[in-house]
Amino acid sequence: MSSIINQATGIIVKSDHSGRNRYTTQYKQEVVAAFESSSLSAPVFARQCGIKYPTFAAWIAARKREESKPASKNPPAFLIAEVAVETGGSALEVRLPGGSVARASDADQIRLLAALLRQLV
To answer: Model's pTM, two decimal places?
Structure first.
């Protein structure tokens, strides 16, 4: 692996044995952020940065995929469940972190609700 200094940015760019440039994740993020705040088209911006357009387009696509991912795949730390007494009898009520409420009033519904909660957590 060899290293050169990009004259435009002053950043050390490493290249592998095939001559492909290797960029750090931080560098990619900074370049895409600079592009988003510019008024240039992607091909023109990539050319000014000395980056091949297909490489730059892949960075932009990766950023968009990252932004569209759900915030967290971690299950909630806890669920709030309470037994509510209504005129028709008692019911199990579960309040999910997103604000949703699920109520089950008989044994079959409670089993279905339990199965649903297992799938969510």
So the answer is: 0.47
